[in-house]
Amino acid sequence: MSEQDPHPDEAAVERYARAFLRPSLFERLRSLKGATLGGWTAVWVRAIGSAGVLLEARKGEARAVLKMPHLPYDRPATFGAAEIRARREALLREAEMLRRFSDSPLPSLIELVTGENPLLAERSAALRGGEVYLAMEPIAGRAIDLEVQARLRHPEFNQVGEWLGRWIEDVLSFLKHLRRTPPGHYYTDFKPSQVLVAAEGQIRIVDAGGIARAGLEMRAPVTRAYAPGTGDLEPVSLQALGRTLYAALLNKVLHERSGIDEPLLATVCPADLAHWISKAAQGAWSTIDEAIARLPL
Prior knowledge:
The protein is of the alpha+beta class and 297 residues long. The protein has helices spanning 10-20, 23-30, 81-100, 144-152, 160-179, 234-250, 262-265, 271-281, 288-294, and strands spanning 36-37, 40-49, 52-59, 62-69, 109-115, 131-136, 142-143, 185-187, 195-197, 203-205, 210-214, 217-218.
């Protein structure tokens, strides 16, 4: 595949972006192809989530997934130096998370990149430059929604509960491992384009997208359904996982206030697993341990 050819995952990313982003921002993201950031050249937009934008990037023969911080790219004038610093600190915490959990489904950190954000080119010189980005290990694989849809179309893959249940178990095991690691790390930014089915059917997560919790301090908001100080983060992680699985199985974006169509979900996977996913998507499981205990395998 040449650098000019569309990547097969781009359709999934575009579907998500069109559903959640303002049109002006979506068009600006499409213009990123060929942009240079800290010596890395963007090849395509790999994923878009609440924590930022992920780019497939190259530097000579080297490849990486480059993470840009979450900024209001279509309204940069409202974003000041203090907000830029806060996003920089969040990415530095994420870099620490990538280093700490290098033996997990998360990618490994290649380097921290400093450069000017091409989406904020009209900003004043005082606020441009010096921004921090993460260059992470590129993970080969297929976005989970594309993989699930491909498998569902083939009759030989009729044991959907078996392989989907195994993937869910892997993710829950990962979340449990993070929870038990001081100071307490949580992954909360599941999106279909960020969860890959990699070699030998293993689940890999292309973005760190997590936050650290020290004591009762919530360091950052994570989704629109969560505000700092409102409670534990485990139900938020499980809700994000449930919504990702729902979207992957039904090939449609589940908006924040959408109703869960459990009967429709049960037409593509076993009814007991559909019930588990719908409960997860609604944030019904209070802990990871409860979610594991209720998983119908």
